[in-house]
């Protein structure tokens, strides 16, 4: 049996997507998500000490321990995480990301959304499917870089810190991210 290039390419893409989906990110067990959130916050605070001050000044944090993205022309990604208010988990969320454009590759990373105002947190929690938009300030710190909470809180009511990237994904994309509450 012989495969055309197109069939081989589709098979490789499907294999990559299947591998990404079966990496444990989809686990909706509350204890597993909480353990990953604790580990992710520990890593964030030890590698980027300024984020501890940011966390202390925030009214809530959505922690996504592991987001996996794969793209070949069209792409997607996702992961599960927890919303913490006052240091306690109050809800669990899934994140789904879709993209289209000139792209190829796969990557994994962690991110935390810091809600700096009560209004931003309430809008997030009341939304049936929150889509990250123009009101989010993205910070991608380099190793040892310090994020200053006084500077960043004046920029946006929601601050996204993206860290721990691994893998390689090349290209320009139009991306959309949606967060949805889940019951583990």
Automatic annotation (TrEMBL):
PROSITE patterns xref list? PROKAR_LIPOPROTEIN (PS51257), TAT (PS51318)
Q: Which residues form the signal peptide?
A: none
Write down the InterPro entries for this protein, in alphabetical order: TAT_signal, Ysc84_actin-binding
Q: Which Pfam families match?
A: Ysc84
What are the coiled-coil residue ranges? none
Q: Which residues form the Ysc84 actin-binding domain?
A: 98-179
Protein name in the entry: Twin-arginine translocation pathway signal
From what organism does this protein derive? Sagittula salina
């Amino acid at each position: 049996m012989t495969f055309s290039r197109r069939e081989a390419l589709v098979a490789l893409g499907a294999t990559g997507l299947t591998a990404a989906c079966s990496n444990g990110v989809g686990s909706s067990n509350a204890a597993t998500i909480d353990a990953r959130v604790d580990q992710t916050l520990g890593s964030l605070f030890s590698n980027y000490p300024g984020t501890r001050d940011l966390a202390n000044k925030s009214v809530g944090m959505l922690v996504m321990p592991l987001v996996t993205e794969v793209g070949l022309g069209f792409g997607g990604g996702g992961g599960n995480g927890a919303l913490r208010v006052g240091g306690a988990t109050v809800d669990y969320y899934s994140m789904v990301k879709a993209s289209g454009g000139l792209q190829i590759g796969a990557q994994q990373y962690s991110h935390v959304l810091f809600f700096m105002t009560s209004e931003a947190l309430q809008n997030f929690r009341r939304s049936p499917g929150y889509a990250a938009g123009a009101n989010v300030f993205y910070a991608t710190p380099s190793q040892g870089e310090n994020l200053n909470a006084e500077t960043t809180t004046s920029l946006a009511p929601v601050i996204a810190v993206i860290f721990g990237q691994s893998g390689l994904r090349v290209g320009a994309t139009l991306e959309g991210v949606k967060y949805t509450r889940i019951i583990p």
